[in-house]
């Protein structure tokens, strides 16, 4: 029994799209710009109402399902629960998220004023971090945040 040539027996052709360009063709490409380094002192963005809800939901879900190791199952269950909540049930999470957002706006405003330093070259200063100034301001903001929380509790 004769059989025809299989695909494995056929000579392989180099795919021109996948070949590595050498010489002057490669030199004509512009070098890629790397992303600017993130400033470790920049305040993190506040969580949305859904993420505030998920913090609480994860704890209760783990208590009910201690053997579950899958992150995706928790996320799907949390998403389904969030969709089923009414606007009234979502209200406390929306309120917490709004509170976090106001705190964030205060922190980012302080961060931006520290970065600009009152100079005319504000954009250039944002790339460099000045730890000593921001650490002092973070401590002050933490104290102010605690006082605000105590006032809200009363």
TrEMBL record:
Q: In this protein, which residues make up the domain named HMG box? A: 43-112
InterPro entries on file: HMG_box_dom (IPR009071), HMG_box_dom_sf (IPR036910), HMGB_plant (IPR031061)
Please note every region of biased composition (Basic and acidic residues): 1-42, 78-89
Q: Which GO terms describe its molecular function?
A: DNA binding
Supply the alphabetized keyword list. Answer: DNA-binding, Nucleus
**Any idea where this protein resides?**
Nucleus
Work out whether the entry's keyword set contains DNA-binding: yes
Question: Record's Gene Ontology CC terms?
Answer: nucleus
Task: List the stretches of this chain annotated as a DNA-binding region.
Answer: 43-112
In terms of Pfam families, this protein maps to: HMG_box
Bias kind Acidic residues: ranges: 137-154
Record-given protein name: HMG1 2-like protein
What taxonomic lineage is listed for the species of origin?
Eukaryota, Viridiplantae, Streptophyta, Embryophyta, Tracheophyta
């Amino acid at each position: 029994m004769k059989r025809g040539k299989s695909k494995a027996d056929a000579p392989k052709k180099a795919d021109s799209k996948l070949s590595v360009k050498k010489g002057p063709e490669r030199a004509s490409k512009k070098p890629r710009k790397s992303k600017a380094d993130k400033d470790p002192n920049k305040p993190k963005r506040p969580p949305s109402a859904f993420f505030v809800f998920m913090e609480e939901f994860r704890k209760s879900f783990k208590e009910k399902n201690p053997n579950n190791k899958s992150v995706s199952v928790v996320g799907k269950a949390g998403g389904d629960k969030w969709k089923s909540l009414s606007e009234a049930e979502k209200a406390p999470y929306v309120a917490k998220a709004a509170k976090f957002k106001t705190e964030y706006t205060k922190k980012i405003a302080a961060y931006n004023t520290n970065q600009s330093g009152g100079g005319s070259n504000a954009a250039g200063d944002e790339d460099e971090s000045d730890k000593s100034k921001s650490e002092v301001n973070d401590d002050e903001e933490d104290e102010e945040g605690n006082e605000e929380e105590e006032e809200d509790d009363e």
